[in-house]
Design goal:
The complex is a heterodimer of chains A (432) and B (266).
Chain A (H helix, E strand, L loop, with lengths): L11 H4 L3 H10 L32 E2 L5 E2 L1 E5 L26 H13 L5 E5 L6 H18 L5 E5 L6 H10 L2 E3 L7 H7 L5 H24 L11 E7 L6 H13 L5 E6 L18 H16 L4 H4 L13 H8 L6 E2 L5 H4 L7 H10 L7 H7 L3 H4 L3 E2 L8 H4 L1 H16 L2 H7 L1
Helix pairs in contact in A: 3-4, 4-5, 5-7, 8-9
Chain B lengths: L1 H8 L4 E4 L4 H13 L6 E3 L10 E4 L4 H28 L5 H15 L10 H23 L3 E2 L5 E5 L6 H11 L5 E5 L4 E5 L4 E4 L22 H14 L8 H7 L14
Parallel strand pairs in B: 1-2, 1-3, 5-6
Antiparallel strand pairs in B: 4-5, 6-7, 7-8
Classes of the chains: A alpha/beta (432), B alpha/beta (266).
């Protein structure tokens, strides 16, 4: 690797490290940020420019952990003045530190983009000197990409908590999406794990961005050419399992963020055991992947299935069941709603049937205008009949639904099935 | 349709031959209507012939094909035409008869039937359409360019279906200031963009390896290897080791794409 020549002017410290090592350090440091989406923006290419943004987003690769790679997700630097307990980059950790130059990051983004490796850049950073200094660097990279390189691909920028509104506003002019990470789902626990941070410093840029987006949308209605401001909206991330917060707390917070703050996405990141020496953190050896999965399913229920948060978790059920998905759990708790007649139920009710998703619900609505649907039709359309059979009636002789079988029996049938699936092959064979 | 076929079973089988193009298939459909008959198979040139069948060789006739297409569009609209074209691209074994059935159904019922997913023919066309679009989307995801010394960006690709024509527009809008070639190595043709327009090409003496897709020694841009190495470094370090999940990775990114993927090929 011979990229060192570009750094000669910036000082001897940087000379010691080549670009490949920097990428290694600064992408590994960014990997716990789970956001990967490149959707929501339709930024068009301009004459002489490079790139555009696809409304639905495009994944370009899948890492060894199966997560989508859509953007070059990387930190500007992993130096940090803060000492948050849950973070690998906290200042008291003795780890290798690195910082990109603006030119390096710009060249890397363009070089990767031209080869169709990525949809664009997702830039975050540790906080150096102070929030404004850091935000200025992040913004400068985006400005260079947009104005000098005429790059029209996707840019997702982190707004650094505590940065000035002018800088966040400028960042919004270049970015497709802005995000501020809340990280810890309750204020008291944030105080405990990150005493140097507080909720207002996170929530105020979030509100500011929201206002910017609302204002931009209003202006767009009048002037079609008014400048873009974070057209793909904003998102945030919550760490799961680093604190004793319940699923009810987490999902209520998320629901509020979708409602009042108009967020596009809330990401949930199962706490990956880092900084095990810190006694404020729980002693776990693996990240709570199942819980994270159930939270995402609940999030989907709120965004695409017309569920409200208190239908998923409430005072009687403050935590999600890990053994079954939240929609099945809801159905078993509310047997009086079932069975649902697929040939007459409205969209809202179709979406409540376990085994029916938004796509199959739409297809049912379309197909039943032509003929009454039976279970064979449903299966072919893509309804998961294994689950749905207990919760529906269709154009057929009545079958055993949740009313005849009772919820407990349905639960045991369905969870038994799941267990069978996870049995190791050897065990299954020996049963023969 | 089944009843109709069983009546014919006593008669001699009827076999249509067409040239394997979409217009050819539409001409075959035109002939079936025109001759008031229902072929048992419609064969592309490489198709498996039946024994002792009556054969009819379809002459591809653009104006007749266009009449069929116009009829489809008049009743079903543009989306139906697109769906049928995508189903055609799937080249699945019984696709020709399926499209004939669909067209007959459409002309018989005289209303859009796209949403009638309780109907077997409609559902099957719907599924083939989805399959082909999925492959098209995957080419948008997994095509990888390699920069040559003369500034050309070259991408070899081997999709399951002939989907490059569906995605060239995407690349044309995105990469306007670089010259590129996207080449389908399994069908041996590709598209070349010269900064202004896209042209269909085929390469006689390939200057790249068909196995790895890599440009031959000396033809690469001098820093190309470094960029690829940087990308591989990124690919390695963005994964969380504790969450390793090769099955999930393969579900999203099937192995058949790996040979041309910068981050996966060896």
């Amino acid at each position: 690797m011979h990229f060192d020549y570009a750094q000669c002017k910036t000082g001897c410290f940087l000379l010691l490290m080549n670009l490949q090592e920097k990428i290694g350090i600064l992408s590994a440091a960014a990997k716990y940020d789970v956001s990967c989406s490149s959707s929501g923006s339709e930024r068009a290419n301009q004459p002489g420019g490079i790139g555009n943004a696809a409304k639905a987003g495009i994944c370009h690769s899948f890492a060894d952990d199966g997560r989508c790679i859509s953007l070059l997700k990387i930190l500007y630097t992993n130096h940090c003045i803060y000492d948050c307990a849950y973070c690998v980059n906290r200042r008291s950790n003795d780890i290798q530190r690195a910082t990109f130059t603006v030119k390096e990051l710009v060249d890397l983004t363009i070089g990767f983009y031209r080869r169709n490796y990525i949809e664009g850049l997702f830039l975050s950073s540790g906080v150096i000197k102070n929030p404004d200094f850091t935000m200025e660097r992040i913004t400068r990279i985006a400005r260079e990409l947009r104005l000098i390189q005429k790059f029209n691909g996707y840019i997702h920028l982190k707004a650094i908590p505590g940065a000035s509104q002018e800088l966040v506003r400028e960042a919004g002019l270049y970015a497709d999406r802005l995000s501020v990470n809340i990280e810890i789902p309750s204020e008291s626990n944030l105080k405990m794990l990150a005493p140097e941070k507080n909720y207002p410093s996170v929530l105020s840029p979030m509100s500011f961005i929201k206002e910017g987006i609302v204002q931009y949308k209003e202006e767009r209605k009048i002037f079609r050419k008014s400048p873009l401001f974070a057209p793909a909206g904003q998102s945030t991330q919550l760490i799961i399992g680093a604190t004793p917060d319940s699923d009810k707390q987490i999902l209520t917070l998320a629901s509020g963020l979708y409602g009042q703050q108009n967020l596009k996405r809330v990401y949930y990141s199962g706490y990956n055991p880092t900084n095990l020496y810190d006694s404020r953190l729980p002693a776990i050896s693996v990240p709570p992947l199942k819980r994270e999965n159930r939270l995402y399913q609940s999030d989907w229920l709120m965004r695409f299935y017309q569920f409200t948060v208190d239908e998923i978790v409430n005072d009687e059920h403050p935590d999600l069941e890990l053994a079954i998905d939240p929609k099945l759990s809801y159905a078993l708790r509310n047997p009086h709603l079932f069975p649902i007649d697929v040939n007459s139920a409205d969209h809202h009710m179709l979406l409540r049937i376990p085994g029916v998703g938004p796509k199959s619900a739409k297809m049912i609505l379309a197909a039943r205008r032509f003929r009454k649907l039976n279970s064979e039709h449903l299966r072919k359309i893509g309804v998961v009949m294994k689950r749905a059979q207990f919760f529906i009636t269709c154009h057929e002789l009545p079958s055993h639904t949740i009313q005849e079988l009772k919820p407990d029996r349905v639960r045991s049938i369905l969870t038994m099935d799941l267990r069978k699936k996870t049995l190791p092959n050897a065990l299954q064979l020996s049963l023969w | 349709m089944v009843g109709y076929r069983s009546i014919q079973a006593n008669k001699q089988m009827l076999e249509y031959h067409y040239d394997g193009t979409f217009m050819g298939l539409l001409s075959a459909i035109f002939d079936a209507f025109n001759r008031k008959e229902y072929p048992d198979v419609i064969l592309r040139p490489d198709g498996q012939r039946l024994l002792f069948a009556t054969t009819h060789t379809v002459e591809t006739n653009d104006s007749q094909a266009q009449r069929v297409l116009n009829g489809i569009e008049r009743i079903g609209g543009k989306p139906t035409c697109e769906q049928l074209f995508h189903a055609f691209l799937s080249m699945s074994p019984d696709m020709e008869i399926l499209l004939l059935d669909y067209t007959r159904e459409l002309f018989f019922r005289k209303r859009p039937i796209m949403a009638d997913l309780g109907n077997k023919t409609v559902l099957q066309v719907h599924k083939l359409d989805r399959k082909v679009l999925r492959e098209a989307h995957r080419s948008v995801m997994f095509i990888r360019f390699e920069r040559a010394a003369d500034g050309m960006y070259f991408a070899p690709f081997a999709p399951k279906y002939d989907v490059l024509p569906l995605v060239i527009g995407h690349f044309k809008h995105r990469f306007t200031d670089q010259h590129w070639i996207i080449y389908d190595t399994s069908r041996d043709y590709g598209f070349f963009f010269d900064g202004k327009r896209v042209e269909q090409i085929s390469i006689d003496n390939p200057s790249f390896s068909k196995d790895s897709g890599k440009l031959k020694e000396g033809l690469e841009y001098e820093n190309e290897d470094q960029y690829q190495e940087l990308w591989r470094e990124y690919f390695r370090s963005i994964a969380i080791a504790e969450r390793k999940n090769p099955t999930l990775q393969r579900n999203f990114m099937p192995k058949r794409f790996w040979k041309y993927l910068t981050e996966k090929r060896i």
